[in-house]
Design a protein that fits this description.
4 helices; 165 residues; 38% helix
Length: 165
């Protein structure tokens, strides 16, 4: 083979290698940046205990006022629509109002515990003074309940209660 052919073949080989390096060695254009993830809303945080206690007190105050004034709708609005036995609670309350005048009612809240951002547990003791409408006899009673409050549609309501013996 002629030396000039060998040189030509070597030159052609070098050119092919350079073209291949240029063709395959080029990096692909960078992909477009990924869209930023949507901001994550912070988890709801329970209000400080003092604020929480005021909020629970406002529910119990509304219940107290409705009970003393025998006003059924505001009284039942203190309970969650999912409260077990809500209809029975309604019937019992109407029967109590028919038989007794509620002279005084007050409560104390103890052991307030946030269970999560929308659920709170507390021990509530009610002291109630009544007058029997038939006999006119005055009776004072005290009852303690473990009450579970739930924030529903922006308002705290009683979701469940259990009498503490």
């Amino acid at each position: 083979m002629q030396p000039w052919v060998v040189g030509l073949l070597i030159a052609a080989g070098v050119i092919i290698v350079i073209l291949l390096i240029m063709l395959f060695g080029r990096s692909a254009p960078p992909p477009p940046p990924a869209p930023a993830p949507a901001p994550v809303a912070p988890a709801p945080v329970a209000p400080p205990e003092a604020d929480l206690k005021k909020q629970v007190q406002s529910v119990l105050n509304a219940m107290r006022e409705a009970h003393l004034n025998k006003n059924l709708e505001p009284y039942l609005n203190c309970y969650s629509p999912s409260f077990p036995g809500l209809d029975q609670k309604r019937q019992d309350t109407l029967r109590d109002w028919e038989n007794f005048d509620f002279v005084n009612a007050y409560f104390t809240i103890e052991d307030l515990k946030p269970l999560d951002a929308d659920t709170v547990s507390a021990t509530v003791t009610w002291s109630i003074d009544t007058r029997n409408r038939r006999t006119q006899e005055f009776v004072s009673a005290k009852q303690t309940y473990r009450v579970r409050f739930a924030r529903e549609q922006g308002a705290w309501r009683i979701q469940g209660l259990e009498e503490v013996k």
